[in-house]
Design a protein that fits this description.
The protein contains four helices and no strands. It is mostly helical. The structure holds fe (ii) ion (2 copies).
């Protein structure tokens, strides 16, 4: 089953970014499914590790666009990315010491909410700036 549903209103309008976002949603869904299916801790642990790596790669991609186009709000946006990586790394640590479904659900719920809010409030804000500079 799907926990996080992609909806069209999450489209930013920059192809590479939208592809990344869809992938991130499917990774979080996969994490949720793994929990429901009762996958073992090492499997889930490794998956969370790759989710963090993929999230960082996505942030790097957005930040490269910011540098390339001198996006004025890039410092604040980067700070949001850094905060998320710090929080998810912390949640991963917690999972390592307490591999309970409650712990995992808390992380999944947090990721879900964060992604939706960040895409809606922050990612959508840079789209016009990038598009005006030929990135779409
Ligand atoms: Fe993003
Ligand atoms: Fe972002």
């Amino acid at each position: 089953m799907s926990l996080v549903a992609w909806s069209e209103d999450l489209t930013v309008g920059v192809a590479a970014v939208d592809a990344d976002h869809r992938k991130l949603f499917s990774l979080v869904n996969y994490l949720y499914d793994s929990m429901i299916l009762g996958k073992e801790k090492p499997v889930i642990d490794e998956f969370i590790g790759s989710l963090v790596v993929y999230t960082q790669q996505h942030f790097d991609r957005e930040e490269a666009f910011f540098e390339e186009t001198a996006y004025p709000d890039r410092a604040a946006h980067k700070k949001e990315h850094e905060d998320l990586i710090a929080q998810i790394t912390e949640a991963h640590k917690k999972y390592k010491s307490d591999a309970s479904s409650t712990q995992l659900l808390e992380m999944i719920g947090f990721l879900n909410k964060w992604m939706i809010e960040h895409i809606r409030k922050s990612d959508k804000k840079y789209a016009p700036h990038l598009k005006e500079r030929g990135i779409s």
